[in-house]
UniProtKB/TrEMBL annotation:
Full protein name: PDZ-like domain-containing protein
InterPro entries linked: PDZ-like_dom (IPR025926), Peptidase_S1_PA (IPR009003)
Occurrences of domain PDZ-like (ranges): 3-81
Domain of life: Eukaryota
Organism this protein belongs to: Cryomyces antarcticus
Pfam families noted in UniProt: PDZ_1 (PF12812)
PANTHER family given in the database record: PRO-APOPTOTIC SERINE PROTEASE NMA111 (PTHR46366:SF8)
Amino acid sequence: LHAITPDRFVSVAGAAFHDLSYQQARLYAVAIEDAGVYCCEAAGSFRFESSDCGWLIQTIDNKPTPDLDSFIEVMKAIPDRSRVVVTYKHLKDMHTINTGINLIDRHWTSKMRMAVRNDVTGLWDFTDIAGALPPVPPVPRRANFIRMESAKYPEAVDVVRSFVRIAASMPVKLDGFPRAKKIGFGLVIDADKGLVITSRAFVPYDLCDISVTVADSIIVDGKVVFMHPLQNYAIIQYDPKLVQAPVKSAKLASKPIKQGEETIFFGFNQNLRPVIAKTAVTDITTVAIPASTATPRYRAVNVDAVTVDTGLA
């Protein structure tokens, strides 16, 4: 019984892992041997969807992880900022294999630590078992943008070349912001310098890792250049030398749009796909975001909401 009850765990990339315990295996009627590594703290690089606990890691970077020792050897060989394929199951559903691509963070939590329970002192003995491998230098990549051939408005379709997808992961929760990960879009305002304007709903503060995805295929790192204290936007920058794609600086209007004007709506739906529709502006009104009484945090002020006559928006 002692042999199949874990007395050690490993913390790496913001998460913690140990072998599957006899108690959990009995509760869910799962065989202990080769079940996979149990993720007891699904955080950091291993924050999976839907549930915070109960995950069994099957493979990382296409290498099997049936137990803690094999998991440690696999994780030792993965450089910082690598994107690796992770397959995992949940204790409640051992017939379904989930697959995800995880960004392995070894810079906010650089050390891999082993904790072993000491039955003499009643404490955990911590040892560092591996440092972080440096990230692999990025290389320039080539890509093209989606073309919607059947769309009526080719100039509006071409706006997709000025949009990039932004994913920000926050290793530390600051300023009362409730989420650890946000995905949204940004508008390229200078393609030569790699400058992108985005909402502070996606990049709430600059202590974060930012991934910029160009043309749905090239992923480069971004950094915060400027955050407006009041008006809800941030300007971030990526390295344009790494992006071999026809990115275009957005052409901005010189005067604001007015109520009643016809326009073409361009946006992204919940599946992160571009959508276009002919529409009209029905209302322009100020947005008053109420102050949170529970959590003092940044909120946008002096912001206008433009309502358009389409369900897409």
